[in-house]
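Sharing in case it's useful to others searching the archive later.

Someone asked me privately for the predicted structure of Integrase catalytic domain-containing protein, so I'm posting the question and my answer publicly. Question first, with the sequence:
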Amino acid sequence: MEVTNQTILKGLKTRLDKAGEQWADELPNVLWSYRITTRTPTGETPYNLCFGMEAVIPIDIGVPSHRVRTFNFDANDEKLKYSLDLLPEARDEAMLKVAAYHQRVFRHYNRRMKPRHISIGDLVLRSIEAAEKGPQRNKLSPLWEGPYLVATMVKPDTFKLKDAEGKMLPRT
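And my answer, the predicted structure tokens:
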């Protein structure tokens, strides 16, 4: 959802350079362009996944393309019923493509990751969420606190921490 919002904001900012402060007038155009653009993870447009057919862009109606000139209402109804029957399969295929895309991104990210082994005596940072200090946080709050000293290893990748004064920290 955040990626969608960022894409829409980017489209609005691009169009606001030309339209001034009339962002509400440009929003339908930006949303339309988002809905008919093919997404990389699925290989489909959001419009196609929702309605089971490709959208006809307004310019195709004003300046007739081959698709518009050869349009047949009767044949279209049959093809529409057929494509709507296949829509669940198209959505399943899109989900498989998304899963494959996530695996490719995961592999690409992990290719550059270097594992770090933590041992007793190392200095580490602690996640503020893990320390249960969430309620007073906001967007600009830090995500980590520390540094803390690793005192003991409870089990692999689980440690007890000490602060600078040597006091053991709870819930580490």
